[in-house]
Amino acid sequence: MVVSMSLREKAPKIGVALKIRKNRRRHGPTLSVARALDLDGKDSAVLYNVGCLYAILGRAADALRCLKKVVRSGWRKEWIKLDPDWTALRGLKEFVALVS
Fold first, then answer.
1. CA angle 92, 49, 37 (to 5 degrees)
2. Would you say 94 and 64 are in contact if contact means Cβ atoms under 8 Å apart?
3. With contact defined as beta carbons under 8 Å apart, do 62 and 40 qualify?
4. Measured between alpha carbons, how far is 18 from 6 in angstroms, rounded to an integer?
5. How far is residue 57 from each of residues 8, 20, 72, 92, 94, measured CA to CA in Å?
6. Over the chain, what is the mean pLDDT?
7. Confidence at 25, pLDDT banded by 50, 70, 90
8. How far is 91 from 73, CA to CA, in rounded Å?
9. Is the pLDDT confidence value at 39 over 80?
10. Other C-beta atoms within 10 Å of 99: how many?
11. Complete domains list, the chain, with CATH
C-alpha cells in the first residue's frame, strides 16, 4: 500500500534540503544531506536540492545521480538549465543529455 504524504508532512523534509542548499561552505553539510535523504530520499524536491548541493561542492557524480532521478520525476528542464547551482556541471555531456 502506497501512502501519499501531504505538503504539510513533506515541508519539514523539504526544509532540511533547502537548509543544506543554502549552506555553501565546504565543511559539514554531509550529515545534513544524509539526514535529508534518510527522511525522504525519493522525494524529487529533496533530491533536487541535494543534487544542487553536490554540484556546488564539486561532487559531480553524486549530483548527476540525483539529477537523473529528478528529471525522471518530471521536473521542468528549463528550470534546471537556469538554476545557477548547476553551473559546475553545465559543461558535462551527462548534464547536457539530461536537460536536453
1. 110
2. yes
3. no
4. 18
5. 30, 11, 23, 16, 18
6. 76
7. low
8. 23
9. no
10. 18
11. 10-99 (1.25.40)
Q: Tally the C-alpha atoms within 13 A of residue 17's C-alpha that lie toward its C-beta.
A: 23
Rounded Cα–Cα distance for residues 82 and 58 (Å): 18
Nearest to 52 by CA among 93, 22, 11, 15: 22
| Structural Rg of the chain based on CA atoms | 13
pLDDT per position as a tens digit, 65-85:
999 999 999 988 998 999 999
The vertex-25 CA angle with 32 and 93, nearest 5°, equals: 85
**Rounded-to-integer distance, Cα 80 and Cα 72, Å:** 13
pLDDT at 1: 34
pLDDT at residue 98, as a whole number: 96
Distance between CA atoms of residues 60 and 58, nearest Å: 6
